[in-house]
Amino acid sequence: MKPDWDKLGSQYKGSRTVLIADVDCTVHQSLCGEYGVQGYPTVKYFMKDGPKGGQDYQGGRDFNALKKFVETTLDTLPACSLENMDDCEPWERKILEEGKGMSTADRGAKIREIKDSVEAKKKQAKDLEKEWKQLAKELEVWEESAKKPDTVEQLLTEEDFREVCGSKTCVVGFLPHIYDDQAKGRNENIKILDNARKANKDDGGASLGFFWVQGGDNFELEEKLGLQFGFPAVVAMNLRKEKFAVYRGVWSKDEVARFVKKPSGLAPLPKLPKFEKAKPWDGKDAAPPADEDL
Q1: CATH number of the domain that residue 38 is part of
Q2: 94 and 64, same structural domain?
Q3: Pair 177, 197 in one domain
Q4: Is the pLDDT of residue 79 over 70?
Q5: How confident is the model at residue 140 (pLDDT cuts 50, 70, 90)?
């Protein structure tokens, strides 16, 4: 009987007046007992004004017999129609009354117009679905591109600083000018900062952002942070809490790592100018500046 019963259910799927359903009595034993079910399959039908416990169906068990019973016994009319406007929503009633008052030709034209609009919207929906699915694939790749290994990155723009440091504490290393330190010295300083980053992560410290900039490129900002003592220097700052601390101790991997783990000397963060836009370092030594003729 199940294939015919499932077929009957599909015939009335979405109907607002007829529900075809089944109950697994091995799971809902108390419910089946409440309605006096003693053998299987037991078919009952319920009508709006019928007995609360339903009535036993005694007809045939094939699809045609079941379908005929539903059509002749149950209310298969649309829940909202010209013959049954009591169950209409206000907007449905308005359309029915408007359509009833139109001429046959006008009503037919209106129906065709709406059908065309529905088909157009369906096509738009399909096209939009293709677009958002493609965008979703691209989004996954973009997000994957952001999962690069944690490093101490060169800070190139104010926007990069705000993107990372707007939501968490950041550590910024102000390193000597490339003319003073050349590639070897700069790489050694970056290594000290990266050692502090790794030590903080290995100890389960808070998630921090790490950047380095070339000292002297942000003169006004460096003055605000009190870095007149020179470079290298390290500043920990939290924009949200408006606090910062400057490391003034020995420049060594262990001491810098200790400061990063627990910055001391916290002070209110002054209003800072924007970081100057920087050119990416190519990892090479810098040629000395050419002398200018007098």
Answers
A1: 3.40.30.10
A2: no
A3: yes
A4: no
A5: confident
pLDDT score, position 293? 65
The pTM assigned to this predicted structure is 0.56
Reported in sequence order, the residue ranges of the chain that DSSP labels E, i.e. its strands, are 44-45, 55-56, 153-154, 170-175, 209-214, 233-238, 243-247, 267-268
Cα Rg of the chain, angstroms: 38
The whole domain housing 186 covers 153-268
DSSP 163-227: HHHTSS-EEEEEEPPHHHHHHHHHHHHHHHHHHHHHHHHHTTPPP-EEEEEETTTTHHHHHHHT-
- Indicate whether 141 belongs to any domain: no
Contacts of 223 (CB under 8 A, 6+ apart): none
41 upstream amide cis, omega within 30 of 0: yes
Provide the pLDDT for residue 77. 65
- From the list 170, 126, 185, 130, the residue with the least C-alpha distance to 260 is 170
Q: Can you count the helices (H) and strands (E) in the chain?
A: 9, 8
Residue range 176-194, pLDDT digits in tens: 999 999 999 999 999 999 9
Q: How confident is the model at residue 292 (pLDDT cuts 50, 70, 90)?
A: low
Q: Would you place residue 250 in the very low, low, confident or very high pLDDT band (cuts 50, 70, 90)? A: very high
> How far is 75 from 259, CA to CA, in rounded Å?
79
Q: Residue 93's CB: how many other CB atoms inside 10 A? A: 14
User: Per-residue pLDDT tens for 195-214?
Assistant: 999 999 888 888 899 999 99
The Cα angle at residue 130 between residues 124 and 134, in degrees rounded to 5:
145
225, part of any domain: yes
CA 83 to chain centre: 47
Task: Name the residue among 286, 172, 177 with its Cα closest to residue 238.
Answer: 172
